[in-house]
Amino acid sequence: MKRIFLVCLLILIAAVAFVGLVKHDPGYVLISYGLYTVESSLTVAVIALLAVMLLISFVLWLAYRLVNQSLAFNRWFSGRGHKRSREKTAQGIIAFIEGKWEKSRRLLTGAAEKSDTPLINYLFAAWASNELRDDEKTRELLAKASASNSGAAIAVEIAQAEMQIDRGYLERSLATLTRAKNEASKYPYVYKLLQQVYTGLKDWDGLANLLPELSKHKIIDKDELQALSQQCCQQQLLAIVAANTDANVNNAKEALIALWKRQNKMVSRDSASVLCYAQCLVRVADEALAEKVVRDQLNRDWQPALIDLYGVVKGADSNKQLLHAENWLKERTNDARLLLCLGRLSLRNELWGKAREYFESSNKLSANSEACAELGRLLARLGKHELSNSYFHQGLLMSTHGLPELPMPSIKA
């Protein structure tokens, strides 16, 4: 208030002084420019100058106000646009969660242009398109997502790979993940997706090469890693045998042995994997090595499937093979599977009486069709046909889980 008063006072004093000067001498002003001249008293010139200055000031003030009003309007309008975009984005995500894919895509793409996070809009819209099985639109939206944020290329490729896996496009997903693999050390989830793809494609070699990375980055827990390693090894062994021919049997044998040597202890001491390896060795005609592999594993882990294989595989020395099995019998006197194995090994050594004793003991401990069948064919060759038929009949009934009690004709003499 005081400042306004002082300004008004100064203006009044200046005006009084100016009037006094004008009365004393009105002055003379001449302005010449080219062929034009303007003559005026000092009073009129000063008043004209002040009027021009006021006019310029007014024009500048008016322009300033108009610009400010325009910016404020733009901010207001832009703010409303962003607010509507946020509302549409929220509605689109809610529709996505509810499974309303078409509505979700429409809302998210419509709000993407003015969204603070267009990447999220386009990614969710792409997922909605994937659920709608609209491949072309999915690719289009993923491209927009990648373009909306230059640092999100890997994230977009990971999302694309997930969508391809979801659709069953495993080869396409593998190509996508291969591009992202160079950055996988920063994005370990890429390895998890590669695991799914390799397993789905039954690419056991690719999966085997991936196992160290799965372990290093702790993508899966120890038990799952062990199970996956064992499955991978077994499938690789079977693949080598499946490709085996009479012409390359030696190559197949060498490939089996080389593959087995590369396995770690959690695979090489797993009974299921050892059984698979031994069975593959038998199929490439290396039963001597198969016998040794099975024997060593039985000394570590006693499994019925392994003892069954040990009874039929032909070792380098059948007599020593029988002795090894009889040593196990000292600790496992009531093991029906071991007794069956011993009976078969006795047959290999042409010990007919011992074989019969072992088969009979196995059948007494646990009646089984295999022991009956072995007794039946052994006794038939020994000329004891009636007893042989009896065992064959017993084994047949066990293999068919018994027959119902029904009327039968009387036995004819």
How would you portray this structure in words?
By secondary structure, the chain is mainly alpha-helical. Among the domains are: 21-63, no CATH class; 221-316, Serine Threonine Protein Phosphatase 5, Tetratricopeptide repeat (Alpha Horseshoe), CATH 1.25.40; 331-400, Serine Threonine Protein Phosphatase 5, Tetratricopeptide repeat (Alpha Horseshoe), CATH 1.25.40. 76% of the residues lie in helices and 2% in strands. It has 20 helices and two strands. The protein has helices at 2-24, 42-97, 101-112, 118-131, 135-148, 153-167, 170-180, 189-201, 204-216, 222-242, 249-261, 265-268, 271-283, 287-300, 304-312, 318-329, 336-348, 352-365, 369-381, 385-399; strands at 29-33, 36-40. The protein has a two-stranded antiparallel sheet. α7 packs antiparallel against α8, α16 packs antiparallel against α17 (336-348) and α18 runs antiparallel to α19. The longest helix has 56 residues, at 42-97. The chain is rod-shaped, with a radius of gyration of 47 Å. Residues 72-78 have low confidence and may be disordered.
